[in-house]
Design goal:
The protein is mainly beta.
């Protein structure tokens, strides 16, 4: 009997996304600091990740006027460098008057279709008023 070895090649891809829809609701008093809010967002990705209308949910902590941090999950259905499937990204970021900085990671076991076994992470920096938002993503697929 021989053992089968699976090699994983690391790839890097880039692209951009735009916010298609954003709905935010306060959790508790909207006039206090710190305060919490939750949002549902629809994004559209182009480039290495092609996903027309994602579904995302975030929880925000506002620690000052227009500043704080957030965490969330985003469900993407589309392609990564031509491979079709669905996967979930876990995101964490901070924001202030200059913009938003975010890192994200594929949720282990969430990828389907030709993306089954997808693992990876990436980041983006959004500067207020600048769209689309560029991202970079480094990944492997089994």
């Amino acid at each position: 009997m021989s053992a089968r070895t699976t090699t994983r090649t690391t790839a890097r891809t880039t692209g951009s996304f735009t916010f298609a829809d954003w709905e935010e609701q306060p959790i508790g008093s909207p006039d206090s600091t710190p305060r919490l809010a939750r949002s549902t967002v629809v994004n559209s990705f182009a480039g290495g990740i092609e996903a027309g209308a994602t579904n995302a949910g975030y929880t925000f902590t506002y620690t000052g006027e227009g500043s704080g941090s957030y965490a969330g999950m985003e469900l993407l259905s589309g392609t990564v460098d031509g491979r079709r499937g669905t996967f979930v990204m876990e995101q964490r970021g901070t924001f202030d008057a200059a913009g938003t900085r975010c890192t994200f990671e594929v949720v282990p076991g969430s990828a389907t279709g030709e993306l089954a076994g997808l693992a990876g992470s990436g980041s983006f920096t959004y500067r207020h008023g600048e769209t689309p938002v560029p991202y970079e993503f480094t990944y492997t697929v089994a």
